[in-house]
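dumping this here before i forget
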Amino acid sequence: ADSFCTLLRFHRSSFVAMRSVVRRHGSAAARNACGALVSGALAGRTSSAPVAVTAVGSSGAVRAFGLGLHPFGTLTPLQGYCSPDIRCQPATEQTSGSTKRGVFAKRDLPYDRVLLRAPAVTYFVGDESVKDQCKEMTRWVLTKVASELDTQEKPFTEYVNHRIRNMMPGHSIVFTSEDDVIRFMMEIPKGMQIVKRQIFTTKDIHSLAMSIEMNRFAMNYDGRQGVALFPEASMFNHQCTPNVELTFHMNMNMEYVVEARVCQPVVKGDQLFVNYIPGNDLPITRLGMALRDRWGFECACAECKSRIMCATLFLFFFGMLPIMGPLWVWTMNRQKSAQKRAGFL
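structure:
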């Protein structure tokens, strides 16, 4: 049993290797031990809001082969499906702004191929402000981390370190001081133990809250507004003409699920993009302001560049009309005067 567990931990990052170990040590007890390690009981819901039926949460089983991954690599959610045909890797600044990472196709992808289908790590619906809703999601994440403090295996903590904390960092201030972070952690059961044991520093907690606020997805449930956290979907960069489309729905298990499908054929090696503001008809200036205020960048895709060029030519043409009109009249008068002197008129 000890040798089997040692092998199991060694191969924890690979499901295929795990399965081969089970087949090799094919007793029923070994299969049961493997199943206990592969699926962690991390079912839970977000904390209740002060108003009635405002908070609902997601639950899921952690799969060991999705843990311990570098942020650049295969996108493996806590629960659900992610295509092996895509991977997260460094991207050039010209294609992804300042994020320096993106999701790329490992092979040609046909139209309507499902790339990702996974429930939210957590979500919150209520009457609170977006900032407070994001704080509640941060509270839920840290509560799950605190629940693993006294356990030998810490799958959710590893997931937070290797996936959630590697999302695009935010620029909105969530906590105004270190005392605010301490007060926030004191409201969480065993929250201060996270700081005392240096699992996360106060700076890490503030950075985590800022990342969650930056990478939130807006949601609507039963006519009420909320926010959801999809770390894998957050790895896609923005483009106004995307090749991947995100759709969201609530399933029968009260899990808010995201699904990513190819909406244009993709060639191997191409970067995969989604539209952060789908279905918008904003003018180019307002679109740039919306992206800059929310995500801290301005789109530089081909469509936006062509719209900017057309807008520039339009403004130049109509801006020159007051000058070109009198200039044209003056030019015509000079031509007529020259023709008269030459005897043509």
